[in-house]
């Protein structure tokens, strides 16, 4: 069902994380946008490998590896961001986002978009993040599972019970009735059993061999903290809303602390979106590959505008995009 685009004036940019990638992402955009082409070219130069070809041609198995997913999604998201700036400059529109947020790895993209971190530093950090997470996963094998149809309180209760056999906990609180849990394999399997017994609508083991957003990522988090200490993190041009506590991040120090903590803490995505809405954001634009976050926003509050910039039907390269621009006040 089409969502009506209502008049808007306060733009919230939201950036996807790992899992939104797909072969071909950004290819059509790069064909029509010089700004996007320049982002992919610069990324290839900085990484000294052909990341753009991996994004556009695959193979899927290589693109899905954690070490590749993260920089590929980051670069594609920044390419869309620069293409949007290019587009609006061409029609005389000013680019003035009101708030920024990212889901998991997307927080690094949001930090770059908000001017806290340079593109070069952001790419280096995300590239290292993927490698560090893979290494932590080899040392502490774990997994993740999606639980649909149970309230968060019940999921927390299930995790507490299953944790008697080792850590498992809430990794993502995406929207009402949609949670992701993460932890060691034995307690994870136990939690999945308990969720099924509690009549969850669906319980699915995710094709991930690491326990993201859990204590299993402690070593990776330490590695990221060391890298962040060497990076200049500036005050954002407008606040970010963090995953950890859904708090407004107004200073470089607050952004840096968020990025240090996020690997071992859960993603409070519903609270993040609600905080942005309550602060006055009235247009949520998902900047990057896919439309996962847009669908979540619509489940959290269907009354607010939400559009995925890369969507073939309503995104920036579609005819319907004109409705988004026409509704801007």
UniProtKB/TrEMBL annotation:
Q: Which Pfam families match?
A: Acyl_transf_1
- Cite the InterPro entries for this sequence: Ac_transferase_dom_sf (IPR001227), Acyl_transferase_dom (IPR014043), Acyl_Trfase/lysoPLipase (IPR016035), Mal-CoA-ACP_Trans/PKS_FabD (IPR050858), Malonyl_CoA-ACP_transAc (IPR024925), Malonyl_CoA-ACP_transAc_FabD (IPR004410), Malonyl_transacylase_ACP-bd (IPR016036)
Chloroplast as UniProt keyword: no
Residues annotated as domain Malonyl-CoA:ACP transacylase (MAT):
14-312
Would the keyword Nucleus turn up in this protein's UniProt record? Answer: no
* Enzymatic reactions: holo-[ACP] + malonyl-CoA = malonyl-[ACP] + CoA
Transmembrane region positions?
Answer: none
Keywords attached to this entry: Acyltransferase, Transferase
What SUPFAM superfamilies does this protein map onto? Answer: FabD/lysophospholipase-like (SSF52151), Probable ACP-binding domain of malonyl-CoA ACP transacylase (SSF55048)
The UniProt record lists the EC number as 2.3.1.39
**What Gene Ontology molecular-function terms does this entry list?**
[acyl-carrier-protein] S-malonyltransferase activity
What family does the Swiss-Prot or TrEMBL record give for this protein?
Belongs to the fabD family.
Q: What is this protein called?
A: Malonyl CoA-acyl carrier protein transacylase
């Amino acid at each position: 069902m089409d969502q009506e685009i209502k008049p808007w004036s306060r733009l919230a940019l939201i950036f996807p994380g790992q899992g939104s990638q797909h072969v071909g992402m950004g290819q059509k955009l790069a064909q029509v946008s010089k700004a996007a082409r320049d982002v992919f070219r610069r990324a290839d130069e900085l990484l000294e490998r052909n990341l753009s070809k991996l994004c556009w041609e695959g193979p899927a198995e290589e693109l899905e590896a954690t070490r590749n997913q993260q920089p590929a999604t980051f670069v594609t998201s920044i390419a869309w961001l620069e293409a949007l700036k290019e587009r609006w400059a061409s029609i005389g529109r000013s680019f003035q986002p009101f708030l920024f947020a990212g889901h998991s790895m997307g927080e690094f993209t949001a930090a770059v978009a908000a001017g806290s971190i340079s593109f070069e530093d952001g790419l280096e950090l995300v590239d290292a993040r993927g490698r560090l997470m893979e290494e932590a996963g080899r040392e502490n094998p774990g997994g993740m599972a999606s639980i649909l149809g149970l309230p968060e309180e019940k999921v927390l209760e299930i995790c507490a019970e299953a944790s008697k056999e080792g850590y498992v906990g809430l990794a993502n609180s995406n929207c009402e009735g949609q949670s992701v849990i993460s932890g060691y394999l034995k307690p994870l399997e136990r939690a999945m059993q308990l969720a099924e017994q509690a009549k969850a609508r669906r319980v699915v083991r995710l094709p991930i061999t690491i326990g993201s957003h859990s204590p299993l990522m402690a070593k990776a988090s330490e590695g990221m903290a060391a890298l962040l200490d060497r990076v200049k993190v500036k005050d954002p041009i407008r606040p970010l809303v963090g995953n950890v506590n859904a708090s407004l991040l107004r200073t470089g120090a607050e952004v840096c602390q968020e990025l240090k903590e996020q690997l071992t803490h859960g993603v409070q995505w519903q609270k993040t979106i609600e905080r942005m809405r309550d602060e006055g954001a009235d247009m949520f634009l998902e900047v990057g590959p896919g439309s996962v976050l847009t669908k979540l926003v619509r489940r959290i509050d269907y009354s607010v505008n939400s559009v995925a910039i890369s969507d073939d039907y309503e995104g920036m390269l579609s005819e319907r995009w004109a409705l988004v621009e026409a509704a801007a006040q």
